[in-house]
Amino acid sequence: RKEVEQDPGPFNVPEGATVAFNCTYSNSASQSFFWYRQDCRKEPKLLMSVYSSGNEDGRFTAQLNRASQYISLLIRDSKLSDSATYLCVVREGNMLTFGGGTRLMVKP
Amino acid sequence: DAGVIQSPRHEVTEMGQEVTLRCKPISGHDYLFWYRQTMMRGLELLIYFNNNVPIDDSGMPEDRFSAKMPNASFSTLKIQPSEPRDSAVYFCASSFGPLASYIRFGPGTRLTVT
To answer: Is pLDDT at A29 greater than 90 in this prediction?
Structure first.
């Protein structure tokens, strides 16, 4: 079983739609959680951290459920520029473990 | 800053050849990571350094792979001999401090072994 699991997608949504991605992790001792974004043929870049109380950054909302070992990312009012792969990331000690990513395609 | 610099950006080589990938981390960052990304396995951590010292190389697939960090501004990942299954994108990344939260990736080296 993978340590960090995500639905690979792709999620095909129209502009303006709301879309949610989920992620589960296997190590209950995981300390920190993040969402990274990776554009096609580019490197991953930090999108946002995920805090226990949930947090929002503009159109993006991240939530963490430690009891269920589950992380989510909600994107409201999708833009064409949101098309990318979204990677769920879990930190244990000094190491980051990446999920396989969920691909989002926003269509006009 | 100039970001993490990797070279070459693309490498095509024949099976059995030696391949050396290079990385210059962001100045002041004390952690350096080498990752490999494939469609099948996603992003995998190969090895990481702290203050030029290898800390965890448990992700290095086999003895054909080796990594060095002779100083704070340079690291290499070497594959000898290379095999077709080594074809992947190899990312170098660096961060400041022990939390490895805001890890910065380089643009990657796309390796093809024929």
So the answer is: no
